[in-house]
Design goal:
Oligomer: single chain
Pfam family, one: YrhK
Protein name: YrhK domain-containing protein
Organism: Donghicola eburneus
Radius of gyration: 19 Å
Mean pLDDT: 88
Order of helices and strands: HH
Number of helices: 2
InterPro entries: YrhK_domain
Structural class: mainly alpha
Low-confidence stretches: none
Keywords: Membrane, Transmembrane, Transmembrane helix
Length: about 90
């Protein structure tokens, strides 16, 4: 099955666990980005904390960059799991 196919995540109990772990990680990174941006925004009210606010925005941006990376790594792992299952069953690729 191709990457990002919904059936990849429910192919086996192992793939369901892998999918759930990556979804949890994705959600945690999402919350981290939101909190970093919120705190950074509040810090901009004080001139003396402007540098800290900028750094929080940079860290929040890195979190937003990590999100698609997490999804891609997850999908590659699910895809490979399917390939190994086919190999174990002796199926040939078409």
């Amino acid at each position: 099955m191709p990457l990002f196919h919904s059936q990849n995540r429910t192919r086996s109990p192992e793939s369901e666990r892998l999918y759930a772990r990556y979804e949890l990680l994705h959600t945690l990174v999402d919350f981290a980005a939101a909190i970093l941006f919120l705190v950074g925004s509040v810090l901009f009210f004080w001139k003396s904390l402007e540098t800290a606010a900028i750094w929080l925005f940079v860290l929040g941006s890195l979190c937003f960059c990590a999100k698609p990376t997490i999804r891609l790594v997850r999908e590659i792992q699910l895809y490979r799991m399917g390939k190994f299952e086919k190999l174990a069953l002796g199926e040939t690729e078409t």
